[in-house]
Amino acid sequence: MIDSKADPRLQVSGLLMGFVASRALQVAAELGLADALAEKPKDGDALARELGAHADTVNRLLRALVGYGVFERLPDGKYANTPLSECLRSDGPRSVRGLARMYGDPVFWQAWGALEHSVRTGQPGFEHVQGATVFEYLAGHPESARRFDAAMTNSSNLINEAVVEAYDWSRFDTIVDVAGGAGSTLAAILRASPRSRGVLYDLPHVVERGRDYLMREGLAARCATESGSFFDAVPSGADAYFMKHIIHDWGDEDCVRILSRCRAAMQGRARLLICEKIVPPGNEPSIAKIADLVMLVMTHGGRERTEPEFRDLFECADLKLARIVPTKSDDSILEVTR
After folding, report:
1. What residues are labeled active site?
2. What pLDDT score was predicted for residue 183?
3. pTM for the complete prediction?
4. pLDDT tens string 218-251
5. What is the DSSP string of 95-119?
6. Is 173 helix (H, G, I), strand (E, B) or coil?
7. For the residues of 244-261, what is the DSSP string, one character each?
8. What confidence score (pLDDT) does residue 149 get?
9. How far, in Å, CA of 29 to CA of 330, rounded?
10. Which of 37, 157, 200, 220 has the fewest CB atoms lying closer than 10 Å?
11. Other beta carbons within 10 Å of 302
């Protein structure tokens, strides 16, 4: 909503207020406003009663979000969902409510207050505030972990279709999804490549959830599960090794360790396929440049990388970047060989 022809002070002022829109979306998701409007339009007072909230302030929240196209106010004063607010519903494959609720979780929200600390020191703001890394914290806080899992599922669902369409997965007999979480992306790949088999590989407590997910998806017979740490080893003998949004979680030294374990598992003409955002050259806006700040605050050494930075990582692990396959999403698939 920034007008490039406006007074520069007004442009900066508008950017400074961006956190308000973000927080309003998070609160709308937490309240379940889009779910409450799923069946029919309602007025703000009725919504407030239904959700146990304050009527005047619910109306003010909705009024602000209507201005962004999130919700619509009808001529009779009632509110209705729009294509944007439909994405805040808890049901449906296009939902991003989980992402909104995770970003709005006080634990994650507070970490952003430490961005200055991160910029000054290079250390993660989350760890500065909570005294633990994100993954250490989630291991001891089940509710935040559930929110994080829901957000990661939303994130996967945003790009699964694009990942499946962009690459010929049918060429592989066996695909290992390294640190594949619940397995939603691997499941999408296997549905599109019915002759392929999969291996979901992650930490023991994560694989347990993944096993249940694959069972519900009817893919358990075609997809094995194995547990372990990618810092120690990766299952060997597959045709393809896939990692989505893993490399950006770690600093260069840790990335080289992970990549080296993958290389040790790869045999013959096996491929390593890495799905990540690539920071573009130049000064144009990019979601990768914003996501890079997220990694700065939330992870210990994680970052989004440029193509040359990826090439350097691969070289350090005695691997080669064969090609980059763009997708319809903000992510690309980096095809890597021995």
Report:
1. 248
2. 92
3. 0.90
4. 999 999 999 999 999 999 999 999 999 999 999 9
5. --HHHHHHHHSHHHHHHGGGHHHHH
6. coil
7. ES-GGGB-HHHHHHHHHH
8. 84
9. 23
10. 220
11. 23
